[in-house]
Amino acid sequence: MKPIAKSSKLENVGYDIRGPVLDKARQMEDEGQKIIKLNIGNVAAFGLMPPDEIIQDMIRNLPEAAGYTDSKGLFAPRKAVVHYCQEKGIKGVMVDDVYLGNGASELIAFSMNALLDAGDEVLIPSPDYPLYTAVVSLSGGTPVHYRCDEGSGWLPDLDDMRAKITPHTKALVIINPNNPTGALYPDEVLRGIVELAREHGLIVFADEIYDKTLYDGVTHTSIASLAEDVLFLTFNGLSKNYRSCGYRSGWMVVSGDKKRAKDYIEGLNMLASMRLCANTPGQLAIQTALGGYQSIKDLVAPGGRLARQRDLAHDLLTQIPGVSVVKPKAALYMFPRLDPKMYPIADDQQFAYDLLAQEKVLIVQGTGFNWPDHDHFRVVFLPNTDDLTEAIGRIARFLDGYRKRHSS
User: Fold this and answer.
1) Which residues face 206 on adjacent strands?
2) What distance in Å separates the CA atoms of residue 104 and residue 102, rounded to the nearest whole number?
3) Structure confidence at residue 5 (pLDDT)
């Protein structure tokens, strides 16, 4: 019989954070091998749990959570998001501008589905969080990657962004704080992006899921707070700042030039209705989370667990010959560079396979984040200090062998 093939729409879609190398790791685990996982920001897997008041509030309200809610979500958590927008300086946001979703990922997907026609282009950072490239392709659009510059601390290259705008460009994506690099964008860069969007009539999609996971006393500016004459869609949620990945509780806020977007907003409402609603228990966590004690501040403060692990991972990685790392100012990741002269890697997915097979450490290769060269990889610094020291020690041992095998 004729084999059943996947849709051609998936031809240019990849998500290597959960890709083939992870499949190999699962196989190894099934065989009884212990893998140290530095591949995914699943915070609960590393013992970082949600604040107790969130858990208790969800338990208390669970008996009332069996029914559908309004397609955009319950009023109280959406109102809490409105208040959060006010704290961030985003003007003109009403409850009707807030959509709750099964994580920010669902909302990112349907915001692109509602917007794009075949041939429409969306500017996406390189390196990116690969979901954006995937959903633009699945929505019929064309992802166009602009460069983030490692030499400037992984900030967007505004000249490269400008050069890639065409008559087909409809929107641009920023991920700030950034995954996979840990960069935090200063206000002058954000204003430059706003000016580009204003000049070319582009929508700005702003992923701010790590806006509280900040180190060294830095502060985060929501790009939507910088203008009211550009259309912004801002994405956030509980997964990272509140260690609640599995609750799948996120939100999207439409702000700025909403009058021009009336038809697009109708499309968003249609897709929100089609999925009926976001999961109700996850919605119930939002108001408590945003209004409660912000325990993330303890984790990122000097001496806090995440700050200590970031510092340790950076120190250990930069001690390895030929490895350089921009120290993250935010988020949970770093994106080390391997000197191509010392590590002439032709296929970085194979490199990740070999590291896994030899040292039982799971990373994600740089090309998995739509970085064009085979000279980077991403690690999470979520494991406790003992496991992190062990994992990076294994990476150092693997790289030492790699250098020796490839030295001339």
Assistant:
1) 174, 234
2) 7
3) 82
Phi-psi region of 316 (alpha: psi -120 to 50; beta: other; left: phi over 0): alpha
Q: In whole angstroms, what is the distance from residue 296 CA to residue 402 CA?
A: 38
At 128, which amino acid appears?
D
Side-chain-side CA neighbours of 274 within 13 Å: the count stands at 11
pTM reported for the whole predicted model: 0.94
CB-CB contact of 370 with 128 (8 Å): yes
Contacts of 210 (CB under 8 A, 6+ apart): 177, 179, 240, 241, 330, 331, 332
pLDDT in tens, 91-149: 999 999 999 999 999 999 999 999 999 999 999 999 999 999 999 999 999 999 999 99
Rounded Cα–Cα distance for residues 17 and 141 (Å): 22
Cis peptide before 167 (omega within 30 of 0): no
Identity (one letter) of the amino acid at 153? G
Closest listed residue to residue 376, CA positions, set 328, 325, 313: 325
Average pLDDT over residues 154-181: 97
Provide the phi-psi class of 218: left if phi over 0, else alpha when psi is between -120 and 50, else beta.
beta
Return the exposure string of 90-113: e unless at least 16 CB atoms fall within 10 Å of the residue's CB, then b.
beebeeebbbbbbbbbbbbbbbbb
Residue 1 has pLDDT above 90, yes or no: no
Q: Which two tokens stand for residue 156?
A: 């967007």
